[in-house]
Structure formats: C-alpha cells, structure tokens
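Is this the right way to post structure tokens for a design question? Let me know if I should format differently. Anyway, here goes:
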C-alpha cells in the first residue's frame, strides 16, 4: 500500500479504547452513574468511537444512566434528557465504511445546542464544533439550501442537523454533497435509502428529540492539562422574544444617550435568530443574519474589530462562491485561479455592488463593543441593526455611531453575554 493510502486508512480504522465500561462520578452528596456507549448500523457489529479528536487518541462516549445533581436551587438534567449520549446501538441508521468518531458527536451536540432555541423548521451545518451556516422558516429543503449557501466551502465534510423529519426531497439535496453526518428526529420514506448512496455517511435518528426545546441546565466539565477540572453551568438563552431585548440607552456625565430608532419586526426576528446561532459559536464571535439565514459567521478571534472584519470578508467570499456555482456550476476559486479572470472580476463587482447580501442585514455580537470602530465597520457595509450585551464604558459612542448613520441604524442590548470557550 502506498504511503498516501496508508495515511487515509488511519481515518477509517477504529482506534479502540481502554476506558472502563462504566463511570461513577461523585459531586458532593450527588452520585452519577454513566455507561459507555457503542454503535451498530444494520449488518455491522457494535463499535465504540473510532478515535478521539485525532487518530491515535482514544475516546469513549458515556451516557448518564442513574443519578441527578442538585446544588442550591438548581436541579440539573438527569438520565431522561439524553439525546446525543442515548444514540447507542439503535440510533445509527446507516453507515458506510467508518464508525462515528468523537468529533462527529461533539459537532452533533453543537448543532443541537443551536436547534434547542428554534421552534420553526430549521437546518444547521456544523464544522469543527461551530456552525458554518444555519437557517429557519419555510420548508426543510429551503432551510438546508440557505444554510448551505451561508458558507458553501466550510460545509464540505460537515455535520447536518435538522429539527424536523427529513423528506426524500431534502435527502436528495443533502445527497449531492459530501457530509460526515446527518441527524434528525426522523426520516420519511425513501430518505434513508437516498442518503445511504453517499459513501461513509453516518445517519442518526435522534431519540428524545421532543425534549430538546425544554431542556434545563446541565453541568459541564472542562478538564485541564494538569488533570484539574472546572465545573460550570450550561448557558440558558435569555433572548427569545423582542421584549427580551433592552433599549440601547446609557447615561454618561449627566447626559442620556439612546438609539433614535428601534429594530423593525423583521430585524427583531433576525436578531433573535442570530443570538440563538451565536450560542453555538466559539467566542470572540459575531453572526450576521438576513431573512432568517446566516450571511456570515465568524468566531474564535481575539479582537472585536477583527471578528467583525472577518465576518464581512466571509460574507463577500460566500456571495462569490454561491454566485459562481449558480452562474457557472464551478467553484469560485477555480474561476479565480484559472484562465477566466473576466468571470471572476464580474462576480467580484456584483458582490461589491450588492454588498454581498449585507445591506439590511442584522449583526449580533457575543460581547459588547469596547469602541465604535467595529460598529462603523458593520454600518459601512449596510448592516442596519445590531445587538450585543451592552456594558462597555463607551456604549454611548456606539449608540452615537448608529444615530449618525444614514439612515440611522438600530441597536439593542441583550443584557447577557454569550461567550463559549
């Protein structure tokens, strides 16, 4: 076997693990019992996780089967709430040549962490534990198409999660792409057979999905390099309706600063949706939304200005990629790098003239804006509404920037930070 083939084989082989079949976790007087999970598609023997974050790292998935933690006034989730960890041998509907890996499940969990806040039909595509695109409203096929258009390049090899049963038409759309995992509460007639045409795809029918939107808090455990642990509560999204926002209004040196206009009903819808998406994005992050679909998602940056600039750049890249596929059935990078500069230039000019879909879009930020620079970047591209936690010493400056814009932009506070590390 050649060396490249040998390297590819490492991604297909099951690493196996030496972890115990059960875990017993004592948190003060609370005792929690976990059992290791295995997975078997029809015609295949049960297997554990293929490997951890990378080949060569052992990993195992455990399900809470007994016990419930309670500290102070908070009672945390118990065994009845299991969704991802309850997939076990019955949840894997179809599989090609590979069993699931750790990252498949962490990506799936990230998708559910977003969908738990959405009530309309929705689709989310997760890549490297962050959404690359998300959309809600209308048919499930439309949701998937708009989520995919939110970042076509990043969707390659992603995890697709739906909050409604997958129809055959929707499955056929997904089948055209390379994705690692498809997960949904159910699959309509013919959809599984359609998805199974893709090699190596793993399809999960999610148990207990009806409990997703009513899940309470969970205890999350972060392990440190030295073996130490940090326990913290899961975040609960406080922004579910327009009334949950706070007016952008502050007092400074005896003067009141407040935005001159409130968001429109459409902007409020987009801000609420954007805040739900933001809950699944690694901080420092911003999400740009228009018509209930993501235009650009940027996260993991060190500065607020940098993450806004990244989102804007991604919006232009996404627009060019989508238009290239629509007009020429060819990835934009191929047009740009091959001997067709005039086609690439035409798409670039169109993106510039149309502001890459940013005109009238809404932007949400997981942290406040310490200066007006990031706000001005967003406004200069035609973004018309912003939401962020508020609390900066210079909130007044960002408010003035919105009011000075022509036309004035809307800004509201969430009163809640949404960092995710």
């Amino acid at each position: 076997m050649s060396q490249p083939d040998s390297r590819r084989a490492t991604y297909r082989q099951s690493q196996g693990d030496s972890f115990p079949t059960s875990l017993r976790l004592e948190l003060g007087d609370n005792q929690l019992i976990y059992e290791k999970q295995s997975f078997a598609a029809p015609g295949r023997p049960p297997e554990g996780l293929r490997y951890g974050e990378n080949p060569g790292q052992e990993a195992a998935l455990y399900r809470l089967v007994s016990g419930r933690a309670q500290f102070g006034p908070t009672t945390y989730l118990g065994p009845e709430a299991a969704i991802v960890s309850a997939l076990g041998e019955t949840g894997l509907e179809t599989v090609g040549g590979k069993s699931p890996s750790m990252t498949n499940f962490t990506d799936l969990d990230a998708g559910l962490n977003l969908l738990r806040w959405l009530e309309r039909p929705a689709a989310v595509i997760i890549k490297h534990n962050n959404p690359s695109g998300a959309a809600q409203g209308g048919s499930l096929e439309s949701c998937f198409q708009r989520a995919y258009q939110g970042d076509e390049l990043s969707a390659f090899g992603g995890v697709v999660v739906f909050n409604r049963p997958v129809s055959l038409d929707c499955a056929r759309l997904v089948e055209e792409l390379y994705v690692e995992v498809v997960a949904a509460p159910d699959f309509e007639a013919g959809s599984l057979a359609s998805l199974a045409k893709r090699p190596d795809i793993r399809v999960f029918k999610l148990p207990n999905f009806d409990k997703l939107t009513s899940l309470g808090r969970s205890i999350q455990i972060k392990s440190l390099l030295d073996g130490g642990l940090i326990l913290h509560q899961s975040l609960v999204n406080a922004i579910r309706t327009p009334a949950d926002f706070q007016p952008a209004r502050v007092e400074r040196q005896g003067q009141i600063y407040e935005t001159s206009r409130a968001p429109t009903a459409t902007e409020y819808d987009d801000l609420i949706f954007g805040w739900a998406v933001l809950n699944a994005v690694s901080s420092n992050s911003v999400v740009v939304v228009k018509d209930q679909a993501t235009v650009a998602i940027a996260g993991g940056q060190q500065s607020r200005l940098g993450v806004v600039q990244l989102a804007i750049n991604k919006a232009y890249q996404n627009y060019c990629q989508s238009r290239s596929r629509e007009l020429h059935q060819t990835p934009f990078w191929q047009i740009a790098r091959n001997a067709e500069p005039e086609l690439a230039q035409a798409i670039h000019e169109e993106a510039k003239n149309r502001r890459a879909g940013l005109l009238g879009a809404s932007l949400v930020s997981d942290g406040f804006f310490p200066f007006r620079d990031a706000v001005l970047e967003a406004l200069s591209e035609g973004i018309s509404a912003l939401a962020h936690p508020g609390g900066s010493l210079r909130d007044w400056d960002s408010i003035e920037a919105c009011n000075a814009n022509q036309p004035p932009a809307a800004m509201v506070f969430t009163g809640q930070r949404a960092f995710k590390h």
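Format looks fine. Someone answered above. Worth noting: The mean pLDDT is 92. DSSP finds 13 helices and 21 strands in the chain.
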